[in-house]
Amino acid sequence: MKNKSQVTFASAYVLISAIGCIWSFFNDDRFPLYFTNLSNYFCFIVMLIELIRLLLRRQLTKPLQIIDFCAMMSLMITGIVYNTLLKTPFEDGYWTNYHSMIMHLICPSMIIIYFFKYRLGSNLGFKYLWWCVVPPYAYMIFIFSRQWIIPDNWYPYFFLDPNKQGASGVWEWIAMLTVVFLILGAASLLLAQKMKHKISA
Length: 201
Known about the structure:
Number of helices: 6
Distance between the termini: 21 Å
Largest sheet: none
Helix content: over 70%
Structural class: mainly alpha
């Protein structure tokens, strides 16, 4: 029964995520440069692999557990940053921008639910916590490398823009966001472990 509900949930996620990802190709010429889009593409691939694994009834390996954790954290970060720093659900147009809702609210919520509902047996310890900052750090390296190669002074997010924040301001934002990411990652691992122990008791 659990496998059936898991397959259903994973299938729903893959379908909704596919709609959002394809939609993003036509939404902005710079679609490959946004963390929102890249993290959603990443999670779509991860969940598609997960769905195939479930259908083939293959064992969940440690590398897949780590990748799942990275994917979940990427979209958690996407949802929290967008809905607090960039736009809030109380602003006009939030609930009528359906593509944004898919990418910033629905998919992040679904993958968080999936992690806590079906990944409680993953047994990822806190030594894997640092993996949660790999996707955002890789993204920042990508953005700054692009700017070095194509110096057009365009940055996708204000907190990465040295023209607005200054170099020291950007580093301050990176430091603050790193702390937030690590706190969220630690809380996620701790909560998953507590929920697992509660279910096992």
